[in-house]
Write a structure and sequence with these properties.
The strands form 5 sheets. The protein has a 7-stranded mixed beta sheet, with helices on both faces. Helix 2 runs antiparallel to helix 5, helix 2 packs across helix 6 and helix 3 runs antiparallel to helix 6. A hairpin with a 6-residue loop joins strand 6 and strand 7. The chain folds into 2 domains: about 260 residues, Aldehyde Dehydrogenase, Chain A, domain 1 (3-Layer(aba) Sandwich); about 190 residues, Aldehyde Dehydrogenase, Chain A, domain 2 (3-Layer(aba) Sandwich). It is globular and about 70 Å long. It starts with a strand and ends in a 5-residue tail after the last strand. The longest helix is centred in the first third of the chain and has 23 residues. The chain has 15 helices and 21 strands. By secondary structure, it is α/β, with parallel strands linked by helices.
Length: about 475
């Protein structure tokens, strides 16, 4: 059985305690994990601080070359990393392979972007002075990542942070630490300076909170819940923050849509990774003439999914990752049903499975704004449908809650879809596509005034967020 140690400056050590990492598919331990303490965190921060100087001594092209090497190593080990990921996270093995492949591509893209980053010369009001802006790392970057995408979400911070020249102290989720260790092994093999990435596995209430409060951490990257994001913001004070905090995303379906194609796209948008995606489509707001037909078509797709263990090649939807998530999904469905929603298919945990985390793919109609599923992120394999009559009503339904991450508009009349899209308060609006559609190089983040995050992650936007602008005003005679 695998063991995930504390790794500081490339040196693995054990903590005073260990916990088991449990497979959501089998209920059996798949690994043990050391629990880091505050002393370990202090050591990791000090080690990272020394590594900042070593990283700064490298050119950005030299750092980019090492980042590209990580991509090569992840592709080399793709199958074994994917199996570890599926085993501890619960997603089907084919989805795990896709995730690792995308993560490798993200490392490669970060390297390419880094190679072509440029400083800027700005116009000066004084003929004897020149103004130059350059990118500088923040210094020691604290990274706190979740369990739902344990390869791609950490990669968003790690590859950009390293290209920018930061040294990193990383707390992965205690539910998926094996994947974190596998990524760290690739980073170490790529021969970054010792201490460039330090792994401090532990619990959020201890190590996560410690990273937010630590005076030696210069900036923080975090993906997780809005509640934890608010706590980090309150604790971190004026540190630069890059926060991706989730969403209860809506896809609006217009009456001119192709029903079969819309149902096919929504199947993936709702049920991929068992709905455990911050950009997952949870609310489906449907123009009334096609409401019933679309609901039945999506329910038929849901019934065709094969719910099974993660490592079974025939599985198309796996178990939920943990009991807290399963209990929330169950509570949202029960609340909706008690308040008048209709369960077309699913709606409960599957019986006679190795764990209680297998949840049937579910489709409900009759969603209303007073239901929990309308107001809160469900984070499970549940499609909730509600009708609308006018575009103004549809826009109000999309916007009438506290989150604003992504939204989608499905329809063939692009002018009408754009008319609606301009009214939506979401960081990303996909026109002619489901909310869940994602390109890893595009800017991803929440809309201002909502609780879906701060900053933008993806491609060059991540590198810009995880670095700072330094301005030099120099004698013009020093310029060409």
């Amino acid at each position: 059985m695998k063991h995930v140690p504390i790794v500081i400056g490339n040196r693995p050590t054990d903590g005073a305690e260990r916990i088991d990492v449990i497979s959501p598919a089998s209920g059996e331990p798949v690994a043990t994990m050391a629990l880091a303490g505050i002393g370990d965190l202090d050591e990791a921060v000090s080690t990272a601080r020394r590594a900042v100087d070593a990283l700064a001594a490298m050119t950005i092209r030299e750092r980019a070359a090492k980042v590209a090497k990580v991509a090569d190593l992840m592709e080399r080990d793709l199958e074994s990393i994917a199996r570890d990921l599926a085993n501890e996270q619960g997603k089907p093995i084919n989805e795990a392979r896709d995730e690792v492949a995308v993560a490798a591509e993200m490392w490669r893209d970060a390297a390419q972007i880094g190679r072509h980053m440029t400083d800027r010369i700005l116009p000066s009001d004084h003929p004897d002075r020149a103004v130059i802006t350059v990118r500088r790392p923040h210094g020691v970057l604290g990274v706190i990542t979740p369990w739902n995408f344990p390869a791609t979400i950490p990669t968003e911070y790690l590859c950009a942070g390293l290209v920018a020249g930061n040294a990193i102290v990383w707390k992965p989720s205690e539910l998926t630490p094996v994947t974190a260790l596998r990524i760290l092994e690739c980073i170490q093999e790529a021969d970054f300076p010792e201490g460039s990435v330090n792994l401090v596995p532990g619990m959020g209430r201890d190590i996560g909170a410690g990273i937010a409060a630590h005076a030696g951490i210069d900036a923080i990257g975090f993906t997780g819940s809005p509640a934890t994001g608010r706590s980090i913001t309150a604790t971190a004070g004026p540190k630069p923050l890059l926060l991706e905090l989730g969403g209860n995303n809506a896809t609006v379906v217009l009456a001119d849509v192709d029903i079969d194609e819309a149902a096919r796209r929504l199947r993936s948008a709702v049920f991929a990774n068992a709905g455990q995606i911050c950009s997952s489509t949870e609310r489906i707001i449907v123009e009334r003439p096609v409401y019933d037909e679309l609901a039945e078509a999506l329910a038929a797709h849901a019934r065709q999914l094969r719910l099974g263990p993660s490592l079974d090649e025939m599985t198309t939807i796996g178990p939920l990752n943990n009991e807290a998530t399963a209990a929330k999904v169950e509570a949202h469905i029960n609340d909706a049903a008690e308040r008048g929603a209709t369960v077309l298919t699913g709606g409960r945990r599957a019986a006679d499975r190795p764990t209680d985390l297998y949840f049937e793919p579910s489709v409900l109609t009759g969603l209303e704004p007073h239901m929990k599923a309308f107001r809160e992120e469900t984070f499970g394999p549940v499609a909730m449908l509600m009708p609308f009559d006018e575009l103004t009503e549809a826009a109000h339904l999309v916007n009438d809650h506290g989150l604003g991450l992504v939204a989608g508009v499905l329809g063939t009349d692009t002018t009408r879809a754009m008319d609606l899209g301009r009214r939506l308060r979401a960081g990303i609006v996909n026109i002619g596509e489901v909310a869940t559609a994602w390109q890893h190089h595009s800017p991803f983040g929440g809309y201002s005034g909502r609780a879906s995050g701060v900053g933008r992650i993806g491609g060059r936007y991540s590198i810009e967020e995880l670095s700072q602008t330094q301005t030099f005003v120099v004698p013009a005679r020093t310029m060409p």
